Amino acid sequence: MRLELEKRSEHSALMTVLSPVVALGLTVVAGGILFAAMGYNPGEALYAFFIEPLTNQWSIEELLVKAGPLILIAVGLSVCFLSNNWNIGAEGQFTIGALAGSMIPILFHEYTGPMAMPLMVLMGALGGMVWASVPAFLKTRFGTNEILTSLMLVYVAQFLLDYLVRGPWRDPDGFNFPESRIFDDAHTLMTLGDGRLHLGFVFALVAVFVIWFMLSQTLKGFEIKVMGETPRAGRFAGFSHRGIVWFGFMVSGAFAGIAGMAEVSGSIGQLTPVISPGYGFTAIIVAFLGRLNPIGIVFAGLLLALSYIGGESAQVALGLSDKITRVFQGMLLFFVLACDTLILYRIRLIKSAPKAGGAHERA
Amino acid sequence: MSKQGVPSSDAVDQPVLVKAVSISKRFGEVLANDSVDLTIREGEIHALLGENGAGKSTLVKILYGALEQTSGDIVWRGNTVKIANPADARTLGVGMVFQHFSLFEALSVADNIALALPKDTDLKALPERIISVSKKYGLPLDPNAMVADLPVGVRQRIEIVRCLLQEPSLLIMDEPTSVLTPQEADELFKTLQRLASEGCAILYISHRLEEVQRICQRATIMRHGKVVNECDPRQETPASLARMMVGADVHAIKSTSEITTGNPLITLRDLNLPADNAFGIELKDINLEVFAGEVVGIAGIAANGQSELFDAISGERRVENVHAVNLLGVPVGKKKINPRRKLGAAFVPEERLGHGAVPGFRLSDNVMLTRFSTEPSLLLRGILKRGNAAEMEQRIKVNYDVRMTHDNPEARSLSGGNLQKFVVGRELDRKPRVMVINQPTWGVDAGAAALIRQALIDLARTGAAVLVISQDLDEIYEVSDRIAVISRGQLSPAEPANVMTRERIGMLMAGMGEKNTSKSDEGQAHAARA
Known about the structure:
Chain A is 67% helix and 3% strand. Chain A is mainly α. Mean pLDDT of chain A is 90; it is low at 353-363.
């Protein structure tokens, strides 16, 4: 008996929806086995990880706070990924967006006019775009692999942040702690609900709607998908390869930059050496788990936000290391990518025994 | 073993080598092979004929172990055998040469051959064996040459020699001449006849009826997954064979009305275009005029600059000199493809899946692909009007007989012939004034090919200029009023079809018409042509 993958003639609409669900199920099962192997009661541990955070108001609000940047970054990345551009450096664009967005609150903290906030958002977007323009330029001009360049720039951005908060931008009244001054109220994003949730989540929802509309209804969205799937056919349709590389990087850079600015201005209230629990990387998982579809990304963003809170919850309830969050996120991405095979292939069980010698199929 | 139903032929007295008995293969709801019987005798060249989607490839893949039949038996020299994978098939003595080669370009000829041989092969002695086998069968081959440097004809020889080294009793050849010049094909036929005379059976899949008549003693004809006929092709006419294949008379193409040519609608003047990659072809000083009302055919062997010429006319690649390309009286050398479409030009590239159409897109979105720039009804201020595209898709489907299992499927699910009807129909539906088409009926069955060729002629007769680039000489003759030949990036002057003999075209294809015959700057793709 053996399993064989058989190509479908068209992609399966059912599996497109079902594959992330199957992946989630497999992650839970694998997670249960992992907990059991570590000597915990898997039921208890999974409850602490996935269910408990949803049982009180505070943590639901916290869930949305964490989902905001994930969704915003992932929606931008989906445009980039759909056009077959692999921007892995959203974390860096997030960081530079936060730095650029903090210029007014830190360098011009006396400017508290009504335009301060919109300017900060604009600066955040520009910061992310500037950082994303480097891999875009290198790719269009020299054919450099954008996966490497965008990833490496993450570390450059993080060192730049570290240098600024320990050096020039350190709060003069901060007892030498490596932190910037605390932002003025005029430089803090409006809050919603009990006070943790801020406007950043609304930015994410607006982005979801705008990108959904663009991808499903406009020529630009059509262009992105054609160039992503078949560049040669895209050229035949008159689309420009260079143009689409720039477009993908600018959109994803701008969204990551805004997310960074909103995180600093809305959640943290100052610049610190570490401003992100890896949102830019986790957003890659969100984008794929959400099928690169803006609506799917909303659900995926909530789920991955839950993995952050669940990690904290499991740490408190069972004393597990919070590294468990990373493990779960990794497993989830692994299973999502594996299950995606089912969209274009079906699994068939072949009863007869194969003969010795590897099948050398060339057809 | 029974010999019923086999009329007299050369090999009739030979023992039966392999028999496929009532083979069926089901893919989901489709029955690709429906109780197929096939008998091949030792030493015969047996043709397998059929339209695209008739089930030929499925049957052959079952014989080669690449697919497993749903039911039925394969009887090899009187014993029922099970062929679980291609390695099994090779052990049994079945070799196959695929239409699309599976060679590693960065490796040498000997390395490529070594990869397919059993693990215990003596690799040191291999080059010697390659040379001796290739000499014996008239397939000159240098074991140390890099595959990347070799032309297609030589690459095919590698595949054949690779099979021959395993001393097969049955050699399956899938459309072997589709990539060869007439001269190369002649050489191949000699090799095949030599092999057959030594007792090796050959199963020969082809669309080219003349070839089948020329070299095959038996033919099995398939249609819709069933065997519909068996015959001695030498006793048939091309028309009768074609009739068996498609089940109805393939109507002969006729250019009814007399040609009244008008203004030149396509003008190429001293068109030069450098190669864009190491294996690309440089276009040199191409001059051509195509007048309203005529079809001009460009013949040539694969990879002699056809796709570069297509790209230069379509605007997928732009040229330095604006006046080098002129469409409908407008110099467009520097314009992109959509401005050229807006002038009234339409283009159909060679590769339908991945160039002419996006595989994962529905047909209606593939209508959008080439027509959003010219149809105001498809695009309103950047917003797509998908409903109108779906209506066009319906119209194309009906007018050009595009067959599909359900409405508006993804492009990749259509068979080659049906997708070709769609991509050609999509452009004809515009009623273009200039049509440039590369390989209009590549791998398309006889019925669909006739429909497409007729449509191209009809389009020209309404006053459009039609440029057909094709590697199929029969097709060139069928549709063209004038014929030019492309060879290594140079184009011969277009001459009336009735003065262009096959011999003359063959000579021009072989480079006899090129201005620059110095060996020094020839493309490396030809350096190894023997």
